[in-house]
Structures are given as C-alpha cells and as structure tokens.
Amino acid sequence: MKLEVRNISVGSLVTSSVPIVVFILALLGGVITFMIVPNLQLAPMSFMQKIMSVGLYALLYVVLTTAVMVFVAFVYNVFTGVLGLRGVTFEIEEVHQE
User: Fold this and answer.
1) Whose CA, among 21, 54, 70, 80, lies 20 to 30 Å from 46?
2) Mean pLDDT per 10-residue interval, the chain, length 98 residues
C-alpha cells in the first residue's frame, strides 16, 4: 500500500509531543555543554548560573527548532498544495502473522 503525505498541519507540529522531545534533548545537550565538558570560560560560574544557562539554552533551542519546523511545513504545504508537486510517498507492506 502506498501512502502520500500531501499536507502537514502546522498546528499539530506545535501542539504535539515533538517540542517536548526536542526540549528533553536540548536539556541533555545543555547539561553536557555547561556542566560536563570542561570549559575555562564557564569555570567562574556558580552551580545555579549553570542550571539557569541549561534552562535558557533548552528554551531557546525549542523555540528556534519549532520555528524552523513550522517554516519547513509551510514551505512543504506550498509546494504540494499550491504548486501541485508530489508529496512524500511511503510504501507500506502488510505483514500477516500466524
């Protein structure tokens, strides 16, 4: 069976679990960047300043990533809906279990 994605709902990108997953990954990246990897520029920062840096990094990362995803979905919708180009096609095989 072939499925073709013709439209991506921009609202579903923002209200789905995707920003939460990106936030968790950004938290992990922020912890690695600000706490685990030694950096001489971050040495004078206190523990609370590092925690605040991780939080602000994660929030900014989520906002920017979500904005990029919304823009990409908008451009994809314009290409498939307005210009009539083909969308992404998935070929799915049905598996019969005995």
Assistant:
1) 21
2) 88 92 96 90 91 96 96 94 89 84
Q: Can you list the positions of beta strands (E) in the chain? A: 2-5, 88-91
Judge residue 31's burial from the number of C-beta atoms within 10 Å of its C-beta, 0-12 exposed, 13-18 middle, 19 or more buried. Answer: middle
Enter the pTM of the model: 0.79
Contacts of 59 (CB under 8 A, 6+ apart): 23
Residues with Cβ within 8 Å of 62's Cβ and at least 6 positions away in sequence, in order, are 19, 22, 23, 26
18-31 and 47-77 helices, crossing angle to 10°: 140
- φ/ψ (deg, to 5) at 16: -85, -170
* Distance, CA of 56 to CA of 29 (rounded, Å): 12
Render 17-38 in DSSP notation, one character per residue: SHHHHHHHHHHHHHHIIIIIS-
